[in-house]
Amino acid sequence: MNAWPTIVYDDDCGFCTWSARYAAARGPFALVGFSELTDEQLARLPADYESCAHLFVGDETYSCGAAAEEVVARMDSWERLPMAAFQLLPGTVREAIREPMYRSLADNRDHLGRLRRCEPPARSG
């Protein structure tokens, strides 16, 4: 198991790839695309894992908005400051804000990819 938190993301999505690399450049993260998942990693994910990003931290698995929150909170950049303030909110309030916001971004990643994207790696064979 990787000692660093591991971001699990859709490596066929340019915006998702850009987002994962952005976080990894600003924090201690390993990256694993959906196409690279091992059987052990797949077992840690929900059945609908392809609907959002995930974060493995030790034995914990965070998904969707919770994963994004945990990633930003661990980044060594300006984004960590507003996240620290956000995390002062009660958990139910955070979730009520976080999950619809995450879903809105995830559902519009094709549009967001016009602004920020990395080309997915070429697949062999």
Can you characterise this structure?
It is built from six helices and four strands. It is of the alpha+beta class and 125 residues long. It has one domain. The protein has a four-stranded mixed β-sheet. Helix 3 packs across helix 4 and helix 3 packs across helix 5. It is globular and about 35 Å long. The mean pLDDT is 90.
Secondary-structure element pattern, one letter each: EHEHEEHHHH
Per DSSP E runs of 2 or more residues, the count of β-strands stands at 4
- Physical arrangement of strands within the biggest beta sheet: 2-1-3-4
Report the uncertain regions: none
List the total number of helices.
6
User: Main sheet, how many strands, which sense, barrel?
Assistant: 4 strands, mixed
Oligomer: single chain
Average predicted confidence as pLDDT: 90
Count of distinct structural domains: 1
Distance between the ends: 28 Å
Shape: globular
Helix content: 40-55%
Rounded radius of gyration (Å): 14 Å
- Estimated share of beta-strand residues: 5-15%
Strand pairing plus helix content: what structural class?
alpha+beta
